[in-house]
Amino acid sequence: MKKIIKKIIKEVVSSITRKKQRDNIAKLLDNLKSKGFYKKYPLEHYPPAITNYSFYRKSDLKWLDFYFSVNEKADQNYISVPIYYFIETSLNHQMLIYGVKEKNFYNKFLPDIPTPKTLFRRINGFYYDTYYQKIDLNELTHSLKAHGKLILKPSIESGSGSSIQIFEQTDGLLLNNKNVLNAEFLNNYHKNFLIQEFITQHDFFSQFNPTSNNTVRVFLYRSIRDDSVNILHCLLRVGAPGSYLDHDHLGGVVLAIDDRNMISQHAFDMYGNKYKIVNDINVSLLGQVPAMDKIRKLSIDIANSIYYGRILALDFTVTNEGNPLFLEINCWRNGINQYQMHNGSLFKEFTLEILEHCNTDPTKLYIVQIPRY
Fold it and tell me: How far apart are CA 319 and CA 257, in angstroms?
């Protein structure tokens, strides 16, 4: 009886989640139709791989219509968003992967990976310095006065830029638009966090939008067949004018970076609208993206250290001196649209091995995640 109840609950949650995703794709397609860009995916000539598996639903085809309408690539290995979140729960162990989302521990379990310098941390309610030495709040706030510009991030849940704040020294106070970075503010900030040095990014990246930290995202797959780590996609994410955050759902755009580290000929926003000009820059004239070889190597090194997550998206910034710094591991609720809008198939040559595994995986879960857009 307990198993039956559990199954019913999962099916109900899955049904609710799929409805939310159906609403999301309906809005995306309505936007394309209103602009005359909608094209139906040619099923009869390019039968999609996903239709051969038990987790496929007819509504998944709408996502293929979206990708085909945007890039005009009829790719049989497209993965719909609902199926991706099913795959993610199968390939990323939800209980064991959670710890790698804790940014305060990056310097512990990835000690050789360069990150922005963390000056102070709150871990499980207590305060620590750069070297994990415990300090009190008064000592921390006094030390803050020596810094001109700082960034505060939640250490675990900062997905989509949630609660990230920048503070700049003004008349002896560290201020942002809303708050003063002091003891009262930190006492009322009900999350574990990091306070890091502000990074001035490389000119190549700042030219797209000087107000935002325009980051490189690397999407990797650790093979279920031979445990090899493979880089599948690289993207450059550019924030909206006036915003520090680079997320497309906040008005930013995304460009692809190919295997030769060349920037794509255009950018896409989250709705599939195409831009050849970004911040008055003709992106087709820009050529290679700096520091990408270093970023690729760091990405492989990081992914090789994470054993219970087979699908990862890693974020990097590049300093003014051209040195990449690792920012964040994304291991669930990853957005996948931009990869397929730019490049076609999400998992490329690994599509069938992933679909076969998830179709027969005895530990597979029902879809219980709602994607962020």
Answer: 18
CB distance 200 to 319 below 8 Å: yes
- Write out the H or E segment, with its range, that includes residue 331: none
Total-model pTM: 0.91
> If you write DSSP's letter for every residue of 88-125 in order, what string do you get?
HHHHB-HHHHGGGG-GGGHHHHSTTS--PPEEEEEETT
Domain count, the chain: 3
Distance, in Å, from the CA atom of 109 to the CA atom of 114, rounded to the nearest integer, reads 12
pLDDT tens-digit series, residues 7-34: 555 565 566 677 888 899 999 999 999 9
Amino acid at 236: L
Q: Both 36 and 156 in a single domain?
A: no
Whether 257 and 289 map to the same domain: the answer is yes
